[in-house]
Hints:
There is one protein chain. About 80% of the residues lie in helices and about 0% in strands. The protein is built from six helices and no strands. The longest helix is centred in the last third of the chain and has 34 residues, at about 155-190.
Amino acid sequence: xxxxxxLTVLRLxxxxxxxxxxxxxxxxxxxxxxxxxxxxxxxxxxxxxSDFLDGRIARKYNLVTDLGKVMDPFADTLSHLTFFxxxxxxxxxxxxxxxxxxxxxFSILFLRMLMMGKGKAVAANIWGKSKTxxxxxxxICSIVYLVLAHFxxxxxxxxxxLVLNIxxxxxxxxxxxSFLTYVKAILESKALSGxxx
Length: 197
């Protein structure tokens, strides 16, 4: 459990705390909305900062471990899907975009486990990097929307909601294309040849 792995564990801890923070107004009424938003911001920023730092530290100081290789993508998937479940539950994330992203994340996690079992890795592609950036943008924009809607409800919400929809669909498209590119790279490398049930 080196520093990068401890940061990943911190990210894993922030995920259920984010969900609990989001759920406070549902459980305790609108009076808990302000504290809910503050806690959501803290959890999100802590999770994203730990995600940035763990990879940077691991590469810079050669602290990459087998545990980290498994735990980091798992933490990414768990955190992103938790964020998106909350945004979908808030009515600001389109159902189709949510389904595409959810299926993609579980599928890519399964493929990574298969590849790791064969001791192989597939390089990241431009769509995967675009997906990561769009996930971050849509998440922070969604939290900003929830904050602004709580304090400054008004006609701006319809325009902002439209922009959010576009961002979510772009994120879903990038996630789908990154998955297809990943599968294509695996098939071309014949990495899964000879695999039995």
